[in-house]
Write a structure and sequence with these properties.
Blueprint (H helix, E strand, L loop, with lengths): L7 E3 L9 H4 L6 E3 L15 H31 L3 H5 L2 E5 L3 H13 L4 E5 L3 H10 L15 E4 L2 H5 L4 E4 L3 H11 L9 E3 L12 H8 L7 E5 L4 H5 L4 E6 L3 H11 L4 E6 L2 H23 L4 H21 L4 H4 L2 H12 L4 H10 L4 H7 L5 H15 L5 H10 L5 H9 L8
Parallel strand pairs: 3-4, 3-6, 4-5, 6-7, 7-8, 9-10
Antiparallel strand pairs: 1-2, 8-9
Helix pairs in contact: 7-8, 11-12, 11-14, 11-15, 11-17, 11-18, 17-18
Family: Belongs to the NAD-dependent glycerol-3-phosphate dehydrogenase family.
Pfam families: NAD_Gly3P_dh_C (PF07479), NAD_Gly3P_dh_N (PF01210)
Organism: Arabidopsis lyrata subsp. lyrata
């Protein structure tokens, strides 16, 4: 009969210097025993210098964190608040889910701030004013009492200090042309809308000044990982405001930043806008992969390829690569591609499951911008001579010229390439 093996923890003794691996670990213990035996805590031993290294490392981490906290407190103490103090009224154009969430957020920034939502639906307008609920999109969430609604564009825009534009891209030109007479030429527009105008390939930074007939209308693009429901629930996230006017970007940052919403600034308007538009198309592709049950490997490979395609086109258009890897690029892409709250991803899941696009769109009460944007993206790719296999496949599927199954086959048979 074989003798039983008693667990024995071995002391570590080395001559000369410790191996590099041990120098970077808190404690190294080698235990000779059966696989299921775990040594008692008081049996763990090691050379004193290794244990002291562990303590030194913890001290370094503690000091680094304390420095970070002190820097943050110092910065907050110096942060200006004059923009928020001066702001009396913010108007929100559009009564959809994201417009409503941002209206509620702005209203919570200051008790006396008037936030007026310009909505089309008189029933939604009444619900907001009488019950403080958007009955269509957030029936369970109470809005701050300083959020009011109107269907009168003139009244909504009167004396506004800032305008949050939350009308879907494809309807923005016509909508803005209809209210242009009431818009002050110096009113800053903060665009929440993501996408490309189908026939013109324009972004919101081009649509707004053209529709308002004012090429100098102040403009800011707001983008980043931000589902409306989570904003309504005050869950923490971070976004980017981009403007050619640095002072305006800083002012909007001051207006919107809070304890649960970080706001970074950027001058790369093109990068922020194109990333926000293209990620919706990529989200449809990610949904198709999920709907076809192609697995996690396929999902990761597809989204990685899609990120590269977005970077290729965006940089050709003049965007900074760092913008595409930042909050408004990779941050928003991850959220939209991987989370079920995404409208565009939902469209893709249902397409991958075999439903027709017409049936999907008929059943939705919100706009999935990626559907209209897909065709515009391909036109842009041709204009800038960029190959976008994944995004092109999405456009073909939406046009009913390619099935999801055939698209996967064609994409997998593309020439093997060298990564650059």
């Amino acid at each position: 009969m074989a003798a039983s093996v008693q667990p024995a923890c071995l002391d570590l003794h080395f001559s000369g210097k410790h191996p590099p691996l041990l120098k970077h670990n808190a404690i190294f213990v080698r235990c000779v025993s059966s696989p299921n035996v775990i040594p008692e805590a008081d049996s763990i031993s090691g050379p004193p210098d290794i244990i002291n290294t562990s303590r030194d490392q913890r001290k370094v981490v503690r000091i680094a964190w304390e420095k970070l906290v002190r820097w943050s407190r110092s910065w907050r103490a110096k942060a200006k608040t004059d923009v928020l103090e001066r702001t009396r009224k913010v108007v929100v154009l559009g009564g959809g889910s994201f417009g409503t969430a941002m209206a509620a957020h702005a209203a919570r920034r200051k008790e006396g701030l008037e936030v007026t939502m310009l909505v089309r639906d008189s029933f939604v307008c009444q619900s907001i004013n009488e019950n403080h609920h958007n009955c269509k999109y957030f029936p369970e969430h109470k809005l701050p009492e300083n959020v009011i609604a109107t269907t009168d564009a003139k009244a909504a825009l009167l004396d506004a200090d800032y305008c949050l534009h939350a009308v879907p891209v494809q309807f923005s030109s016509l909508f803005l042309e209809g209210i242009a007479g009431y818009v002050d030429p110096g009113l800053p527009f903060i665009s929440l809308s993501k996408g490309l105008e189908l026939n013109t390939l324009r972004m919101m930074s081009q649509i707004i000044p053209t529709a308002l007939k004012n090429p100098r209308q102040p403009f800011v693009a707001l983008s980043g990982p931000s589902f409306a429901l989570e904003l309504m629930n005050n869950l923490p996230t971070a976004m980017v405001v981009a403007s050619k006017d640095k002072k305006l970007a800083n002012a909007v940052q001051q207006l919107l930043a809070s304890s649960y919403l970080r706001i970074n600034t950027s001058s790369d308007v093109t990068g922020v806008e194109i990333a926000g538009a293209l990620k919706n198309v990529l989200a449809i592709a990610a949904g198709i992969v999920d709907g076809m049950n192609l697995g996690n490997n396929s999902m990761a490979a597809l989204v990685s390829q899609g990120c590269s395609e977005i970077r290729w086109l965006a940089t050709k258009m003049g965007a900074k690569p760092t913008t595409i890897t930042g909050l408004s690029g990779t941050g928003d892409i991850m959220l939209t591609c991987f989370v079920n709250l995404s409208r565009n991803r939902t469209v893709g899941v249902r397409l991958g499951s075999g439903e027709t696009l017409d049936d999907i769109l008929t059943s939705m009460n919100q706009v999935a911008e990626g559907v209209a944007t897909a065709g515009a993206v391909i036109a842009l790719a041709q204009k800038y001579n960029v190959k976008l296999p994944v995004l092109t496949a999405v456009a073909k599927i939406i046009d009913n010229e390619l099935t999801p199954t055939k698209a996967v086959l064609e994409l997998m048979n593309l020439p093997q390439i060298e990564e650059v």
